[in-house]
Amino acid sequence: MMDVYLIPAGEARYELYCEVGEEAETRDEQATRGWRRRLGDQFTTVVSAVEAARHGAAHRRATGAARPFSRRLRDRTVCWLAEKIAEQRLLWHLRGKRDVTLWVPDDLTGQEAVDRVRAMLRTDADRHLRWVVVDGVGLIASLALVPIPGPNLVFYYFIFRAGGHYLSRRGARHGVEHVEWHARSSPALTELRAAFALDPDLRRRHVSEIASRLRLQHLAAFFERIALPTP
After folding, report:
1. Residues 6+ apart with CB under 8 A from 65
2. pTM of the model
């Protein structure tokens, strides 16, 4: 059963979070023939390439290896794409689930938490539909670049964007209409709410300790992103 966490992101705001492996399938299971199948295969290839390139970029940044400007720009782009994949991976995985354990702060009732999650997913489905339309137009327009020699990077970019939003919308709708959410209380998640009032260093230590208790490897980094004030 898939575990999803309802993470406090302020006094009355929440974000959904889960940790799933990179090896999970991203191809749309219904796109079994024709152009949809070909686009699905290309999307899966792009995602796999981004994941592989991210590991190399992270290694170069960690070791402080000398990088020309073009390499630094490429590494930043790869990391940005990988972050977008991480943000949408939860919705991609929901497409194939029927039962999900929803871990929630213990100051929320189970039904209140499930209602919040379904409302969030409805909003996500509408937002991703808008982006499917926008990026679909860009994908069609990028076909004009096919005769130009060399890889059509614009085409691959819009495959990634349109494909990701399409799968995210399917996952969000599936989460609303078909997933059975089993809410379970977690006092540790309630503690996260108070972390927003702490100074940054203390907050990072506090959240890291909670993440260790929950055995969530990337929760601290995720929480730090949502804790940063929006410009």
Report:
1. none
2. 0.76
Predicted confidence (pLDDT) per residue in 91-148, tens digit: 988 998 999 999 999 999 999 999 999 999 999 999 999 999 999 999 889 888 767 7
